[in-house]
Write a structure and sequence with these properties.
- By secondary structure, the chain is mostly beta strands.
- Helices cover about 10% and strands about 55% of the residues.
- A four-stranded antiparallel sheet has the order 3-2-6-7, with no helix packed on it. A three-stranded antiparallel sheet has the order 1-5-4.
- It starts with a strand and ends in an 8-residue tail after the last strand.
Length: about 100
């Protein structure tokens, strides 16, 4: 069985990151000030982010194609500048609070 759990509300930008910063959760653009704020190198979201936790037996069944996964699983993508070039972090690591 799978369940969705709150994993945290922060993502860390790499050293040397510069604005502009664009943040997406599951492909949907987030607005600075409403959905997140930037504190140093951390992007802090206004709510906890959720990841799906899948048991070993369910993972095995999914790998056999018996059924899929239907829990809530949020991914964070970040576009930012570093050394004058646009860079992207896809499925950024969500840090615990």
């Amino acid at each position: 069985m799978s369940e969705s759990v709150e994993v945290g509300s922060r993502v860390r930008l790499p050293n040397g990151s510069e604005r502009p910063i664009q943040v997406f959760i599951n492909g949907t653009a987030q607005a600075e000030g409403r959905d997140y704020s930037v504190h140093g190198r951390d992007i802090v979201f206004s709510r906890p982010l959720v990841k799906e936790k899948v048991s070993r037996s369910r993972w095995f069944a999914m790998s056999l194609g018996l059924f899929g996964s239907y829990g809530k699983n949020e991914t964070v993508d970040i576009h930012f500048r570093r050394a004058g070039k646009t860079q992207v972090i896809s499925d950024a690591e969500i840090l615990p609070d």
